[in-house]
């Protein structure tokens, strides 16, 4: 029996996506140690922020408060965050979306995630370059 994959249409879908995705992240050999050991993520606090973030990204809902770029720049001072790490993040995110959902908003979520990863990686590289000049 196959389960029909519907599109991302609600906050409940975002919660399902985020919870499943970060379950994969935590179990991953590359990303798990970064989130759990280096960053020491407080998952009870982080997951609701990620629900609000993706709700804002996909549906334009107000309510997200935070600065993901600043958080990632700080983390990049403690551990490598490069092509390998961002590539794995994208691989897990796209795989999670594809396993759970199908439709225009699912495709938009993958596209947005890819763009976010590119922007984060660009800023981390630029920050390293500026740090090297200091």
Secondary-structure class:
mainly alpha
CATH topology: Globin-like
> What is the count of structural domains?
1
What is the helix fraction of residues, given as a range? over 70%
Major sheet details: none
Kindly report how far apart the N and C termini lie. 60 Å
Q: Which ranges are low-confidence, i.e. pLDDT below 50, for 5 or more consecutive residues? A: none
Instruction: Report the total helices.
Output: 6
What's the CATH H-level superfamily name?
Answer: Globins
Q: What spatial form do the alpha-carbon principal axes imply?
A: globular
Which whole number gives the mean pLDDT? 91
Q: Write down how many β-strands occur, each being a DSSP E stretch of 2 or more residues.
A: 0
Order of helices and strands: HHHHHH
Taking all Cα atoms into account, the compactness measure Rg is 15 Å
Description:
The protein has 134 residues and is an all-alpha fold. The protein has a single domain (11-133), classed as Globins (Globin-like). The chain contains 6 helices and no strands. It has helices at 11-27, 31-38, 43-59, 68-76, 83-100, 104-133. The longest helix is centred in the last third of the chain and has 30 residues, at 104-133. The protein is globular and about 45 Å long.
């Amino acid at each position: 029996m196959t389960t029909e994959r519907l599109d991302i249409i609600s906050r409940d879908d975002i919660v399902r996506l985020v919870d499943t995705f970060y379950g994969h992240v935590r179990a991953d050999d590359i990303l798990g140690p970064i989130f759990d050991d280096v960053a020491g993520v407080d998952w009870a606090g982080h997951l609701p922020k990620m629900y609000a973030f993706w709700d804002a990204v996909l549906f334009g809902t107000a309510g997200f408060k935070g600065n993901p770029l600043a958080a990632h720049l700080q983390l990049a001072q403690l551990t490598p965050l490069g092509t390998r790490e961002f590539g794995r993040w994208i691989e897990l995110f796209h795989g999670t979306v594809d396993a759970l959902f199908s439709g225009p908003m699912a495709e938009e979520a993958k596209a947005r995630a890819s763009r976010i990863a590119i922007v984060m990686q660009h800023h981390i590289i630029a920050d390293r370059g500026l740090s090297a000049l200091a």
